[in-house]
């Protein structure tokens, strides 16, 4: 296990591979662990880091640091402490919101971002996410397979207060609207079968600015990286392979992803 102390609090992370840096940020029901498959896919060309946010996995529990903006501060301090420069971010759910908050505050530190099952507004979050226990949420959202059970084995470590505080901070500050005009390339990825997060409509997807693009992965639910890892990893590596500053809309040039936009 790897960990660093940031302002008196322990932050757990894992790293794999060599090359340009990528930081993976988990969602509301897990830890760094469900990124293992994606990290392995990325590590052939990149240095992949996966961080446990405050209140999740093996990082410190501290209610004062649970709002999305404070979790973004964690990422900034982590990069500073590790001596990491400009990065690609891959975030899921809560991690996507934290990544967007980081982009809002430090846009020049992010080369590109992949935001998976990211609620673009508070109303997109199913009310059950705010009321159910962690065990109930896992039973609701995770396919009953050995792979899923292993990937989400840290879900029970999450502090329910961390889940509640982050969703509350989304209600008070819609970070998605703040980054639309910053120009950082952003690929939005959704599972059409996700009951927890309502994905943007075709009309909203079509209205995204040029530096943003939405892809809906067939046969995926709340955890595309677990539900369909082969397809997810291919999309991720294709996105990471784009030239710096290129719009993710260039992925449409590949018929494979063009078919999956709607």
Helix coverage percent: 25-40%
Q: Please give the radius of gyration in angstroms.
A: 17 Å
Label the CATH architecture. 3-Layer(aba) Sandwich
Strand content: 15-25%
The name of the CATH superfamily reads Alpha/Beta hydrolase fold, catalytic domain
Give the tally of structural domains.
Answer: 1
User: How would a textbook summarize the main sheet?
Assistant: 8 strands, mixed
What is the strand tally? 8
Task: Write down the overall geometry.
Answer: globular
By CATH, the topology is: Rossmann fold
Mean pLDDT across all amino acids: 90
**What would CATH call the class?**
Alpha Beta
* Poorly predicted regions: none
Give the class from helix and strand content and strand pairing. Answer: alpha/beta
Number of helices: 12
What series of H and E elements makes up the topology?
EEEHEHEHEHHHHHEHEHHH
Distance between the termini: 41 Å
Strand order of the largest sheet: 1-2-4-3-5-6-7-8
């Amino acid at each position: 296990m790897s960990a660093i102390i940031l302002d008196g609090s322990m932050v757990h992370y894992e790293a794999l591979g060599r090359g340009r840096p990528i930081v993976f940020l988990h969602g509301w029901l897990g830890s760094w662990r469900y990124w293992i498959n994606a990290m392995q896919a990325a590590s052939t060309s990149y240095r992949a880091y996966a961080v446990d946010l405050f209140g999740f996995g093996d990082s410190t529990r501290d209610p004062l640091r649970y709002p999305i903006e404070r979790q973004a501060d964690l990422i900034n301090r982590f990069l500073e402490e590790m001596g990491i420069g400009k990065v690609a971010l891959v975030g899921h759910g809560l991690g996507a919101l934290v990544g967007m908050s980081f982009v809002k505050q430090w846009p020049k530190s992010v080369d590109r971002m992949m935001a998976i099952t990211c609620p673009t507004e508070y109303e997109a979050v199913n009310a059950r996410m705010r009321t159910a226990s962690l065990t109930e949420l896992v039973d609701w959202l995770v396919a009953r397979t050995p792979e899923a059970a292993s990937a989400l084995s840290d879900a029970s470590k999450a502090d329910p207060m961390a889940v509640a505080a982050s969703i509350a901070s989304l209600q008070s500050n819609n970070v998605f609207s703040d980054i639309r005009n910053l120009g950082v390339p952003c690929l939005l990825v959704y599972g059409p079968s996700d009951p927890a997060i309502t994905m943007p409509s075709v009309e909203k997807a079509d209205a995204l600015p040029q530096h943003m693009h939405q892809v809906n992965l067939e046969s995926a639910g709340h955890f595309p990286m677990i539900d369909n890892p082969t397809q997810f990893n291919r999309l991720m590596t294709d996105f990471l392979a784009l030239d710096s500053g290129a719009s993710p809309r260039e992925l449409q040039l590949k018929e494979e992803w063009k078919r999956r936009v709607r």
